[in-house]
Amino acid sequence: MASAITARPLISAALPNDRTARLITQILLVFGGTLLLTLSAKTKVVLGPVDMSLQTLAIFLIAATFGMRLGVATLLIYLAEGAMGWPVFQGTPEKGVGIAYMMGSTGGYLAGFVVAAAVVGWAADRGWDRSVFKFLGALLIAEFAIMLLGFAWLATLIGAEKSWQFGVLPFILPDLIKVGIAAAFMPAIWSFWRKAD
User: Fold this and answer.
1) For 50-101, what is the HEC assignment?
2) Which pLDDT tens digits describe the chain residue by residue (197 residues)?
3) Residues 188/61, Cβ–Cβ less than 8 Å
């Protein structure tokens, strides 16, 4: 069985064969993923001068587990929930909700989340999440996309220097730690799966 799923994301092994049951399961997974994203956004770990949320780690793991299509769908539904005013983001409802919040200082990072899910999901669809080094490369590209889009959007609001100082620099080390955790976690899960199979 292991050889039959080597080119698919992890979740594919758990999806039912029946088309209707498969669709229902995928819908439930997407909404479960948005709940996990919300919880991860609200979970803070103090690391140095910044409060680090676990959201990018959750994005990486969801995209790797679900694959590109389901992973991106999860992120898009999550953003739609936020656009509707649901308090799903890290700074909501304290710093506002809905489109107004999304167009604020975090707008670029939110767009970057979708790109990151696409990159990591694409890599998982090709089996890169079985190898620490291949998966690490995909994760670094995904992290760069988040930071680039976040920096670019924030720079239009507060200027490039402040955007770098407050929107990128403090998050480099915490986010690299999350990249490292994800890069080690998914291959370990696949190794366990192969042994169990």
Assistant:
1) EEEECHHHHHHHHHHHHCHHHHHHHHHHHHHHHHCCCCCCCCCCCCCCHHHH
2) 344 445 688 888 788 889 999 999 999 999 999 999 999 999 887 766 666 789 999 999 999 999 999 999 999 999 999 999 999 998 888 888 899 999 999 999 999 999 999 999 999 999 999 999 999 999 999 999 999 999 999 999 999 999 999 999 988 988 999 999 999 999 998 888 777 66
3) no
Q: Is 123 helix (H, G, I), strand (E, B) or coil?
A: helix
Give the distance, in angstroms, between the CA of residue 81 and the centroid of all CA atoms in the same chain.
Answer: 16
Which architecture does CATH list for 2-196? Orthogonal Bundle (1.10)
How long is the chain? 197
Separation CA 44–CA 67 (nearest Å):
26
Enter the tokens of residue 135. 């998966």
> If you search the block for the tokens 């050889």, which residue do you land on?
3
Element (H, E) at 47: strand 44-47
